[in-house]
Every structure is written in C-alpha cells, then in structure tokens.
User: Fold this.
Amino acid sequence: MKTGNSFVCPIPIRQYPQVLLAHGGGGTLTHQLIEKMFLPAFGNPLLGARHDGAVFDPPEGRMAFTTDSYVVRPLFFPGGDIGTLAVNGTVNDLAMCGARPLYLSAGFIIEEGLPMDTLWRVVRSMKRAADDAGVQIVTGDTKVVDRGKGDGIFINTAGVGAVPPGRAISPSAVREGDRILLSGDIGRHGIAIMAVREGLEFETTITSDCAPLAGIVESLCEAGIDIHCMRDLTRGGLASTLVEIAEATALQCEIEEVSVPIREEVRAACEILGFDPLYVANEGRFAAFVPAEQAERAVDLMRRHPLGAGAAVIGTVKAGSPGLATLRSLIGATRVIDMLSGEQLPRIC
Amino acid sequence: MKHIDEYRDGTAARACAEAIGRITTGPWTIMEVCGGQTHSIVKFGIDELLPPAVTLVHGPGCPVCVTALEYVEKAIEIASVPGVCFCSFGDMLRVPGISRDLLSVKAAGGDVRIVYSPLDALRLAAAHPDREVVFFAVGFETTAPAVAMAAYQAVRQGVRNFSMLVSHVRVPPAMEAVLSSPGNRVQGFLAAGHVCAVMGTSEYGPIASRYHIPIVVTGFEPVDILQGLYMCLRQLEQGRAEVENQYSRSVRPEGNPAARKLMGEIFRVVPRKWRGIGEIARSGLGLREEYASLDAETRFGVAHRTTEEPPECRSGLVLQGILKPRECPEFGTRCTPEHPLGATMVSSEGACAAYYHYRRRRS
Assistant:
C-alpha cells in the first residue's frame, strides 16, 4: 500500500482518532505509528533498515552537524507549519555552514490527545520540505506526554551535511570592507505567526517566508562567490545577526536603513503593533558577508533564484567601531543596533 | 506606506533641519512631551541634525513610565489572586514593582494576558464568566476613550466579572508641573499629537500664556518632529508664546468630540500620583460614581494600599527633563533593561530605554 503521498491519514480515525500515551510507549501502538505513518511517509533505505540508528559512509570533505528544537503556536500558519519549520530550520543551519544537507533525524514529543490527522499533516509537510531541500529523514523517535504537558507537538531535528573541500565559511573569515547582503524582505514569519496567534486581520494575508536555503547558497558557491560568512535570520531577526557577527569579528557592521527590504504589509503591521522589523523573526532569509568586488554579482545571482528575488546589498563591514552593529537612519544619522532584551511586547499607544 | 514614508524622507528632513539652522540663534531648550516622540528622536537621530544651540529634553509622556509604583504593586497583587485573569497592554508587563513584575506573576502560574484593546478584555470576561477579568487601564488621553468604551459596554451588557484597575493620567497638568519645578529649563514644548487628536488644543492656550511658552502640537515621524521644532524655534526667536498645530493631518482644534463626550460620562478628574514625580493635582482620570462597580481597587480591597518609591531611581528627574538618561549614575551599570531600577528603562517609550538601545556605546 502506497501511503506516503496520500492525503488520507494511514491510521484510520475509527481506530485511533487521537494520539494516546501508548503511541509513545514502545509497544504495539508505537510500532503501528512507525510502520503505518513514519516509514511510508519518510520512506528511504536508511530509515527502512529499521536499525537503532542510520549507518552511512562519510561524505568527501568535512561534515557539519547541527540541531534545533521547534515549538510554535499555532502549529499551522500561512506559509508553513511546525513540520516545514522543523525541516527547513535545520537545513538552513547546515546551509549557513556551507554544507550540503544530507540527513536529518526527527524527534517528536507529542501531547496526548493530539488529533492523529494533525500529526499526519505535520509528517506530510516534513516529507515535502525534506524533498524540496534534498535531504532524507533517516532516524527518529517518538514520545507522548500527558495531556496538558505539551503544546500539541514539539519536534527536534538534528542534521548532518557535507562541506565540500575548500569552503571555509565562518565569522573569522569576515574582513573590513566586506559587503553585507540580505537575501530578501524581512519580518514576514514573525508577523504571520503573530497575526494568527492574536487574531489580527490585515487586508492581505501575510505568509511566512519559511523556506530551505541550501539551494540558493549552493548557487552562490558554485558560481565562485567567496562567501566569508552567512547567518540565517531567525529569532531576534536581522538585528541580532548583525550584533552577533560584529561581536564575533570585532569589526563594525553598518547597514543603511533605506536598503533593507521590508514588505508594505509587514511594515504596516509593525507600525500598528509597535514592533521594529529588524527584530522580527524570519525562517527563509539569510545575510551573507562577501568581498566588495563580488557583491554586485552575488546579489545578481541571488535575485535569479526564486528565494532571492528581493536580495540587496544592505551594508558594509568597517573597522571604525569594533564589535558594534550600526544603522544609518533614513534621515542620515547613525545609531547603534542592540540585541533585544526579552521579547518585543506590543506597545500601549 | 502612505502617511509615513513622506514623513521619513531623508531629503525633506534635511531641508527642515537646514531651515532650523537658518532661524536659530538660541540657545534654546525644548521638551517633546510624548515618549513616542522621544523614541523617534533617538532612533532616527533627529537631534544630530540640529544646531548645537538647540537642546532637546525628554518629557513625561510615557504612560508606562509614569504609572505609580503603587499601581504596579496593586496590579501584581490582583494578578496573583487565584481565579483572576489579569489583562494588560504588553508594555506594562516588564515594569518593575518592588520585588517583581507582572511577567514573573505569569511565570509563577498567574493568568496574565496581553491584550490590544480593553474591549478584548471585556470579551474575555463575557466568554469566561467563571473568571474575574481585570483590565489594567493606564495611559494618557489617547488610551482613555477605548477604556471608557469598555466600561460603558460592560455596564450595558451586564458583564459582572469584569473590572478595571484605573490609573489614567492627563497631559496638561504634567506640563504645568514641569514648568513649575524649581529646576525647570524647558522653554518650548512639542505637545503630544495623539493626545490632542482626542482632546483638541484648547487646554494648551492658558498654559502658553500663563508661562509664556510656545507649544506646538506635533506628530511622531522625523519630518513631523523637525517641522514642530522649526515652528517652536521660530516662536522663541520671535518672542511669541502661542499654541500652533504641526500635526493638522490628525489633530483638529476641537479634538474628537465623540471620544471626549464618552470620557466625560465615564471618568472624572482626580489627583494622581506619578512615578518618580509624586502627586499632581487634577492630573488623573478616575471612574465616576455610576461606574464605581467596575473599580478593581474596591473589588479586590487594594484601594488604600500605598507604596513608597525607592530613592535610587531618578526617573522622576528624567521625566521632567531635568536629567538626561546618560547623566544618571546608575544608567547602564546598576540599571539595565534586564535589571531595571525604574520603568523608563523598560518601556518601549521610555527615555532611558531609548538611550540604552540606540546610543549606549557611543561616547
């Protein structure tokens, strides 16, 4: 029976409409969940070997290894869901190391009572995202916690990728004079989540930018762009990335406010809520530090990729104020960009 | 974005700044009243475009910053009562009480929620008749109309499990308090545009003439603020002291009559304590007798609780324009957004927060 691509949950509702504690207990129900849902959905030889872990040959060059845990409310939002996040987030961390993502693990912590159909939707999303990113989910784990002890479902993914010989992408490679590139408009993921969570309605639906970045990164590397460093912009937004790089390199990262692409609807939402879009989360955007002479070509290449249509040069690495991220404001004054302390909270008026 | 982009235009801003340079002989000290204006000034670097003869000092118009410690403590006490769902604007949650803030009440299991409108809190109350829903009604004349509407609707709809902890404040008495303070150095005001969008401009004429001080009702974007400063400086240079309106796209002389009428039905003018400053006569809005049943202070028996302000936070001086954030010895050392001594360091409109985030590491 081919269930991997079916829209129908392989575990019939009349049997188990909801996840039970026993689905994580290691017995028959766990076995059924693996056999009927995970194996066919993620289907690949390494997972199919049913071993305690995936066993594979190391790729040529060095390897990158990363992990991240995903908790999001609501589980489904415009432009993605917790499944796409769990795959793309880890794929992107690998891509930022210059690695070609190969394999992922998937650990599910499910709250008792989660509709089986919800789990199936998440699993299908993960499969689709994995296919899009060219990775395989080769090992996993499932635990079920008592009702009220989780938020529907939490997912942890870890990933390994191959870093081709000769690539050395890290903050230590950043040099004075490097240009700072941004792969597209910022703030969409955070605002999309916020809008659904808080029931805010705008004229157009703001969709998350959640996407796998390995492809666009690869297109830059293959074209011979000497990327010194990259960071995907996640929680904390562009601002936190710039501060991190400035601190790690003891150089100054200066951006031009006017160059940072932000969609009209995201700007409007931020204005209403009192948020600074520089701090709003993204899930499909990255900043790249490249030599000045390659900046224009790199932006050109990015723009030719579907995920980089809005790419722009937004700033320059300087030596003037070591360890500081700064911004030239719209009116030409310079200010410091700081890390966020705590969460952004909606303002009063 | 229409109505925003043209007021953030770099060329227009520089032209305004040059015009200011041409008319200013100075020296002059001008206070922007509203915390939203303070943040625009520091965030966009508006003060850097001004001639050295112009000094900007930051005013008392941050609703979070001026809410008395006493009310923060009352909020924390009420929010900790089992069965209470305590609703607040997000900004208030990080404001330090004596030993903790509302976020820590939430972390300890209290039902503390962020709402965007007092009407959302009322809806929660209607949906959860088993819970006591309390709304923390703070802010200036800008937020008061929505709170008045929630009170009006609560009584109309007979929602009995809804109440409000009211600590509303009024701008004009605070401006007078600044001008009467012995250390006052303010020679001109940029009045808060959105407060005037509700209240109109008539309250400011008497202040302008009594203290012989120009007052320019001003918006919040860089070009607004620079235009407001230009108008204020032109008056100072010409020796005039009038009320002018830079923010005419939002502010009419009569304000918003419907909002004012509703506020008048629900609220009465009361004396109010301001954090760091103390009590200012006629500076607050409290519930009228007819709406006293909605008063959370009475419902939860906290009305007579008083709290002394700790002396180490000098935010009162900052809020009156006497001390600049960086002149405070605790700034950035004992007082940071992670460990604030006062509300000006944590509010999104607080002057100390603005300097900490945007200017901290510059000499």
